Amino acid sequence: MSGNLQLLAGTLARAKQENRAALITYMTAGFPTVNEGIAAIQAMLNSGADIVEVGLPHSDPVLDGPVIQAAHDIALRGGVRIADVIRTVREAYRATGKPVLVMSYWNPIDKYGAERFSSELAEAGGAGCIVPDLPVQESALWRESAARHSLATIFVAAPSTTDERLRELTAAGSGFIYASALMGVTGVRESVSTAASSLVRRIRATTELPVCVGIGIAHAAQAAQVAGFADGVIVASALVKAILGALDAAAGTATVAELTAELSLATRRHGD
Amino acid sequence: MSSKFFFPALPGQSPNRNGYFGAFGGKFIPEALVAAVDEVANAETTHYLFGTVAGPHPFPAMIRDFQRVIGVEARRQILERTGRLPDAAIACVGGGSNAIGLFHAFLPDTDVRLIGCEAAGHGVETGKHAATLSAGEPGILHGSRSYVLQDDEGQITEPWSISAGLDYPGVGPEHAYLHDTGRGEYRPVTDAAAMRAFRLLASAEGIIPAIESAHALAGAIEVGTELGPDGLILVNLSGRGDKDMDTAARYFEQDADAARAGGVSK
After folding, report:
1. Predicted TM-score of the model (pTM)
2. What CATH number belongs to B61-260?
């Protein structure tokens, strides 16, 4: 089976036709357990998320702030393996038919084998991968495997990324470009920095690919603001935090569903 | 330029650096790393700099260039004092900053062996060690590809060493290169061997080395035995041991207890 790059592209194109931004939500696989993680992801996709990112837990999540670090830690202590991450992708896709991405640091994929990982991700119905610490100039091998299996390779651009580097990222990337709203680690912030809109403008000057903005977006007002200038709004830590702070898994899933629904509404305010 | 200092209060290290760093406005706080990360959340105004030669380019090269003075001076001084270059230059390696600082000036001197002593903890075969080049494999950690200690799915594993400064599960990429090309030799040194060397220098010379540096001394004892009495060895005594007195006292106490109980003395 080949991967779902086309489904991802189609989902982003349809959101654009509907004059709204796509909502992309994140959850760490295996957090708090594999099955509860799957339930939370399915709840997000059933509550208005268009696309989901499944985090592959890592011992050294250098892009992530304390909230997602804690989720990775809990997942790894629970003994989560790459096979569990692939199963999470499979069950999320099978239950909803929506695009499912993996967000992973490069070392686990490199160690597992890029070809083996892409082939298993595609077979599970995955749509692509975000690998924040894989530099574009080191990515050829991964991109060949990903392309062979119809998986998107989504690069992260930061406000500090130069125009020259942006051209390299957008030429090599597929699916969409992940624009980091700020210079820093993942985590909830009170407001969206102005850096985000100018970064999106600079990326658009180099590519036709959709541009989705993440890092630091936590609530509906911020999502609505970002939906005004980006093709997609990415929310991660706020959702993970809802599960961390919940009394039990069912309550966590319910809160996640509620927050996703609010965020989804916010992305539709665009153009009102 | 204004600076803020965050110092982790490491278990096993006595906080006697407090006064020293206090003079610069620094404070020891248990949550130093979290506080520092919060600060770095604003990367427009703040850069996170490793203390070692790891991390993405250009940090390994920057730290090496800051550290290389020791090698330049040591090379000049040993020529002045002995009229020749050493047979071996020896340093401890965690991330590898003091070692690369010493080695760099000697890279073109191919007759000088460059020997890095890694922390073998309880022994490389026990899995409780930080001997990344001796027992690790290539992987990506903290933004660079080098040797790392990892499991079968690329999760970085917990290193162990009696020395807080050496228990890093990676190593600077330039050391990985020297290891792969054979220009550098890296050998594991156990906690026990390092502590024997620690005690030896303290009793023979009245110098208390850092436990990190004691790994280099233990390596020097081995290499000296190999070279014989005509050998000339340069050792980087990269730190002082007063910060390690609690750890050393605890170690030697347990060692004595084990000996009294009829165990084999380390």
Report:
1. 0.89
2. 3.40.50.1100
